[in-house]
């Protein structure tokens, strides 16, 4: 399902169903059209996709560094900051958002980027940095998504882990700084024991592998960045929409690095850069456990393991494990 439709449920988590989260994000360049029925909405979506694809801009040679590493879609600009560092910007306007995706796929690694988010009234917009194995059923994914807000209101960072198509594992945190005032570093450490989300030098969340529970450990994933209109669910559960009079919205990325292994073919070991112990054996230390607790105590906004409405038959098994 390519298109994004609003859920019929009216519960407080209705901005959050996993199915919407993924389908809407994949549709990064779609401007949803209000429509009374799912069917009509789907039709409107199909048209919007076709138009957006036609509008994709051809790259110029100044963009070469970006296109070597990434495929782009929609409004993506390559440029340089005042100190000559490469900056990729995604622009969201009424017609289109944008996305870029690494040409290579990885199996385990440390992925890092500096982002400067949309300033001012970013309500309804969603900027992301995530890994995904693709659109197939049973896909794996590791997400960092920044949910815009009205001027002066806190931006929430949604983190999520998908394994075999199940992604109901969101935890959201408010950031303790203004993420639009300057660049901050966002990092995903993904190894065979845990997925760690980092903001600057601080560990924010650790998703631990349990031998008997699903974990993203078999499917190579590409690195994605997107900026899209998430009006239907992003801000205050969809009540606050994108204010197009403030468009275009711009999010900037720089300092990208993928220190990561790539599959070397069937039956062969992974091809890894030298010194993978930097991240392959990484677990939170006692001090880092402290920052996980600190973030949870002071900044957590949503935790799937505390959402009894969503899991009336009991929480996912990992919720009660250490
Ligand atoms: C936006 O700000 C409001 C008011 O402070 C807050 O309740 C909400 O959680 C914030 N974030 C989002 C994504 O709506």
UniProtKB/TrEMBL annotation:
Residue span(s) of domain GH16: 24-253
Entries under SUPFAM superfamilies matching the protein: Concanavalin A-like lectins/glucanases
Enzyme class label: transferase
Keyword Secreted: yes
Gene3D superfamilies documented for this protein: 2.60.120.200
Subcellular location, principal: secreted
Protein known as: Xyloglucan endotransglucosylase/hydrolase
């Amino acid at each position: 399902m390519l298109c994004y439709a609003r859920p019929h449920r009216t519960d407080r988590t209705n901005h959050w169903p996993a199915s919407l989260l993924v389908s809407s994000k994949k549709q990064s360049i779609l401007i949803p059209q209000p429509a009374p029925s799912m069917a009509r909405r789907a039709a409107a979506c199909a048209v919007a996709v076709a138009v957006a694809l036609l509008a994709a801009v051809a790259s110029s040679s100044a963009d070469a560094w970006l296109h070597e590493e990434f495929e782009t879609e929609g409004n993506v600009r390559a440029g340089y900051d005042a100190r000559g560092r490469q900056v990729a910007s995604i622009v969201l306007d009424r017609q289109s958002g944008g996305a870029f995706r690494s040409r290579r796929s990885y199996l385990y690694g440390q992925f890092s980027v500096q982002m400067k988010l949309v300033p001012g009234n970013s309500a309804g917009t969603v900027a992301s940095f995530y890994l995904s194995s693709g659109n197939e059923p049973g896909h794996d994914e590791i997400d960092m998504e920044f949910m815009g807000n009205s001027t002066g209101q806190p931006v929430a960072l949604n983190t999520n882990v998908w394994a075999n198509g199940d992604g109901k594992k969101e935890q959201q945190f408010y950031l303790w700084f203004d993420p639009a005032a300057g660049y901050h570093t966002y990092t995903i450490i993904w190894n065979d024991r845990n997925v760690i989300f980092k903001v600057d030098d601080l560990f924010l969340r650790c998703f631990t592998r349990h031998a008997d529970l699903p974990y993203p450990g078999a499917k190579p994933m590409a690195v994605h960045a997107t900026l899209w209109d998430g009006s239907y669910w992003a801000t205050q559960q969809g009540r606050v929409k994108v204010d197009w009079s403030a468009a275009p919205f711009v999010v900037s990325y720089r300092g990208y690095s993928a220190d990561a292994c790539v599959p070397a073919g069937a039956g062969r070991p992974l091809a890894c850069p030298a010194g993978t112990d930097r991240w392959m054996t990484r677990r939170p230390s006692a001090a880092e456990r402290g920052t996980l607790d600190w973030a949870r105590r002071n900044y957590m906004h949503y935790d799937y393991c505390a959402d009894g409405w969503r899991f009336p038959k009991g929480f996912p098994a990992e919720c009660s494990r250490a």
